[in-house]
Design brief:
Keywords: Membrane, Transmembrane, Transmembrane helix. By secondary structure, the protein is mostly helical. It has two helices and no strands. It has one domain. The longest helix has 26 residues.
Length: 54
């Protein structure tokens, strides 16, 4: 059960990070560095909340 939750958490992190990077860079026209840092933070926060929920 722990392995399944870990894999789902990694997938959630990856999807949120990639989508938020594209949104921040293309929609909000932020620089690449800022977009990367913000996307990683958002992905980490969402994954943390998912792990905390379960």
């Amino acid at each position: 059960m722990h392995r399944k939750k870990a894999v789902i958490g990694i997938i959630i992190f990856a999807i949120v990070t990639i989508l938020s990077f594209f949104l921040l860079q293309n929609v909000f026209q932020l620089g690449e560095g800022v977009s990367v840092i913000a996307a990683l933070l958002l992905g980490g926060i969402v994954e943390f909340l998912y792990q905390k929920k379960g």
